Structure formats: C-alpha cells, structure tokens
Amino acid sequence: MKGTKIALGTWAWGAGMFGGDSVFGSNTDENNLKPVFDAAMEVGLNLWDTATAYGMGESERILGNLASAYKREDVLISTKFTPQMAEMYDNDVTKMADASLERMGLDYIDMYWIHNPMDVERWTPGLIPLLQSGKVRKVGVSNHNIKEIRRANEILGQAGFKVSAVQNHFSLLYRSSEKGGVLDYCKENGIRFWAYMVLEQGALSGKYNVGNPLPADSDRGRKYNPVLGQITALTDAMKEIGAGYGLTCSQTGIAWALSKGTMPIIGATKVNHVLEASKAASVTLTPGEIERLESLADAAGIDTRGDWEHTME
C-alpha cells in the first residue's frame, strides 16, 4: 500500500443493516457499481476499504465480485472485524475474517482492522494468528485513541508484529485525532493514518445546503440537515480556494486531508467520485489556506462525532 494516496470506501455499497440505503439513502448494486470500480482501477486507485458491518456483509460480497475480474495482486482489499458483531461469529476474530474471505472469494486480506475499541485486551490478540497464517498481510485499528493504539501495538509487538495503520474519523469539522495526538503518534511510529468521513457523508461536498438538503429519510440527512446553515461559510471558502486550483468543493476537502499527512478514504458510488478523488491527490494546499479553512470549521461550532466513536482527546 506504499505510495497509495487515497483509499476508496464502500460503506454506501449495497442494502441492508448499516448499509447504503439506511445510512446514506443511496441505491447501489453490483451493476451500477461496476463502472465505478473499473474507472478507479483505470486511474490507479486500487485500494478498497469495506467491513463486515457494511450491509451485514453485502458490501464485501459486491467488492469481491467486482475485484474477481482483476488479478489479485492488482487489487488491495481492506476489511474489518467488528466487536459488536462478534457473537455472530462465536466471539472469534478468525471466524469473522474467514467469513469475509469467503464472501469476497479471497485467500488473503491486505489490511484487517479491529473496527472499534470495545476491549483492546480481548480482541487485539485475535489478529496475531491471522498474521501468522498469512490470511492477513497487515493489521490496523479503527476508532482507537492514542492510549488504545499504544496498547494494541504492545500486544502485537510481543508476537513480532505491529499496528500498521490507524483508521479514524477525520475532517475539517472533526479533528479530534489531531488534537488528541494520534496523528503525531502515527508519524513518529511509521503508522499510516487513514481518514474516513473526510467529507462528512457529503455535508462538505458543497452539493447540499438549506435549500437542497441531504436525503431526509437517511441517517446522514437526520444528522447534518439541521446544521447545513452553520457550515455555509466553510463550504463557500472551500469552493473559493478550490477554484484557484481547478478543484470542486469536495476535492478541496480531500486535498486538505492529504495536506495534513493523512490518507483519505473517499466513498465511491459514482464514477465522478473516483475521478474527483484522483485529481485532488495532485494538489497541495498552502499553510494559509489550511489555517483559513480550519478557522471557519471551528467557527461553525459543530461536533460531528458518530454514535459509535469516543473522543480522541
């Protein structure tokens, strides 16, 4: 995964519990996602992030089917063990990983994560047999704070392994991982920081406003529609700064995340999402532009932490 600047997210793929229809209000299936997958591979974006929890395995199934048209070594697959679902797999990390492998038709996973830090002592050791067997190439932790990341690293270190990556919610509106020292810890220890919800599920895309809200019957609509008026100044500035580079509002948000030294995970349900992400990777914002955007984000006074997260500070 070295050299890859952007990962593509599949949280909004397929239907089902915690899937695209309920969370995003989207309607995606294998047929309309195939052009998206193919376009990404064509422009060199080959790192795909999913999870057992996304549509209760439906996202993994679709991803595996689309990836099967390519050589295995040309596609990088990231998926996750979700502790909240562990009872469905006899509280066994390997069993959940095996189920993911079967759904995706793979014999190994490039990056496997502990999705949430419900119990670092309990779940982290379950990654070790997967690394030893080769079923998993690298491991990471998601939604963990600095104390939990350090402890996970210690547990893995006892077996000769390490946390290779951290995946946390990180956006202009939610910089808890930076303020809590997680970004600095990752830089100091050679850990890649993957930033998800960089565009806050579309709220920072510039496509939505008070007069044109997000889908009202979706989780994201219920969360962000009430505060769209508070982020207008921020999205206006994102559009203005982006225009100087030939970027859209969304691309400016992606460029900001890249400028912070993170690898953004961009939700990919349309071909233009892929093409926008690819172009954004070529732009580096100036310190002054970054400061301006962050000041406006702070002034918006919004806490976008998800119900599944605890603060990193």
What does this structure look like?
- By secondary structure, the protein is α/β, with parallel strands linked by helices.
- The protein has a domain at 7-202 and 261-270: NADP-dependent oxidoreductase domain (TIM Barrel, Alpha-Beta Barrel), CATH 3.20.20.
- The protein is built from 14 helices and 8 strands.
- An 8-stranded parallel barrel has the order 1-2-3-4-5-6-7-8, surrounded by 5 helices.
- The longest helix is centred in the last third of the chain and has 14 residues, at 287-300.
- The radius of gyration is 19 Å and the shape is globular.
Structure summarized in a few sentences:
This protein has 313 residues and is an alpha/beta fold.
Q: Which ranges are low-confidence, i.e. pLDDT below 50, for 5 or more consecutive residues?
A: 19-24
Q: Which architecture of the domain at 7-202 and 261-270 would the CATH scheme give at its second level?
A: Alpha-Beta Barrel
| Tally of contiguous helical segments | 14
CATH class of the domain at 7-202 and 261-270: Alpha Beta
Spatially, the strands of the biggest sheet line up as: 1-2-3-4-5-6-7-8
The share of residues in helices is: 40-55%
Write down the CATH topology of the domain at 7-202 and 261-270: TIM Barrel
Gross morphology: globular
Distance between the termini: 28 Å
Q: Provide the CATH superfamily of the domain at 7-202 and 261-270.
A: NADP-dependent oxidoreductase domain
Mean pLDDT: 93
Percent range for β-strand residues: 5-15%
